[in-house]
Design goal:
The protein is an alpha/beta fold. The chain contains eight helices and seven strands.
């Protein structure tokens, strides 16, 4: 079994092709859209959700390799094993990233189980050995990482931009960024609100900066 190199792809504005028209294909199209991709779905027939989704391009035809022109990522979910294999070989021949759903041996990348909280993404993979275990771990983490992480990570992003633009000295910036990402600040955000967490972060930034002057 392949050992995978974990990576997050920037799909913003890139063409991604999903071959297949069922509910799984629709879910794959949705996750690609959420990442900013331009999604094209190819199938002779589409499920109700795909028919209703006006945000993806639908090409109603049988698959042929011309459907892959200009693609960055290809996902195959046709329920036809021979066709899925053909899509894999066509994509590999064109140097494209390709995933055949539930067939890791016909993938150049696999999609991990993920917990999303705004910009925070926690991904779990067993390298294709046990998707069921990855799903169980994801459900466990969903209970541990609540919606408060969304606003907390958003605040950290805001503060990072401010500190990088206003605080001189790389070492000082690094110390501030490390300290404001601490779980004690997360606890403040949970218990007293994001505004109080921001006030405390600004206090930390000011204290660290003044200490080196």
């Amino acid at each position: 079994m392949a050992k995978y190199y974990p990576v997050f792809l920037n799909l913003q504005g890139k063409k991604c092709v999903v071959v297949g028209g069922g509910n799984i294909a629709w879910r794959k199209a949705c996750s690609l859209k959420d990442a900013g991709a331009q999604v094209t779905v190819v199938s002779p027939a589409f499920c109700t959700k795909l028919k209703e989704d006006m945000s993806v391009e639908r090409i109603q035809q049988e698959y042929d390799q011309t459907c892959l022109e200009g693609a960055f990522v290809v996902i195959a979910s046709t329920d036809n094993e021979e066709m899925d294999k053909q899509i894999y070989y066509d994509a590999v021949g064109k140097g494209l990233l390709v995933n055949v759903v539930d067939k890791p041996e016909f993938c150049t990348f696999i999609v991990p189980a993920s917990v999303m909280r705004g910009d925070l993404c926690i991904s779990i993979s067993t390298g294709g050995a046990s998707p069921a275990l990855a799903k169980n771990i994801r459900e466990l983490l969903e209970n541990q990482f609540g919606d408060e992480y969304d606003s907390f990570v958003g605040l950290l992003s805001e503060m990072r931009k401010k500190i990088l633009s206003e605080v001189p000295g790389e070492a000082v910036r690094r110390e501030i960024l490390q300290r404001i990402a601490g779980f004690d600040l997360l606890d403040i955000a949970k218990k007293t609100g994001i505004a109080e967490a921001k006030r405390k972060m600004l206090e930390i930034a000011s204290g660290v900066t003044n200490s080196v002057r």
